[in-house]
Amino acid sequence: NSPTMRISTAFLIALVPASAAASSTSKYPPPWIPRGGASTKTKQDVRKYRMEQQQLMQLRSMILSEELAKRGIPIPTLQDVSVPNDQKKPEKVDWDCAMATEDEPKSCMLSFDAEANTKVLAPIDSDDWISVSALNRLRRNDPTKVDPMWHSKFAIVESWFSPSSPYALSSSLASRPSTLLLSFVLDHKWALSLSIVGSLFTLVILFLPVLEVLAQRLLVSDFLWMEWPKWARDVHA
């Protein structure tokens, strides 16, 4: 029983539990791993579930951002992140008004020079003038072509023609009720058609007594009854 023999025997005894533990671990996995091990299908299902939850969370966040932006809260929306980096969103802008005269002519973006004694508009701190009549005509025919006149740098339609805008033209240039009414009728085709029909109906009602007297005079006139032999056969046909 030499010391070397005793050390070898103790080393072998220590190795037996370690090898037994290794064999038991290979047979029985730790409790955090499913019995039989995690299969490839299980991992794919977990990844799919996590991806769906992430997408739903992003969708809810986007809907919430849109609703908060509608209430005036300054928060990025889908439109803000969808605009390319080199293309900025058109900004609202105030307007400047001037009178084109023979002594001080003004250029017009649609007709080179504005006619004398006509009002012209331009974004504030800008020399890109356009006459009021030309701007209204372009806006009524095709509103999508208004903003590109200024290279889509300014939101002209939203700034100048929206009643809720602080830069609305209707609050300054069209202060008289008659001007406001005329502008409303010209901006809405249904209002123009209704106005024409209503005007004709009103004229008929106003001149109905006169038309009735003229009809009676015609029915008892000599001119009508002198031609009786000609049109009597058609009446009794």
UniProtKB/TrEMBL annotation:
Keyword Signal applies: yes
Transmembrane parts of this sequence: 190-211
Segments for region (Disordered): 23-43
Superkingdom assignment: Eukaryota
Keywords, comma-separated and alphabetical: Membrane, Signal, Transmembrane, Transmembrane helix
Signal peptide, first to last residue: 1-22
Protein name in the entry: Uncharacterized protein
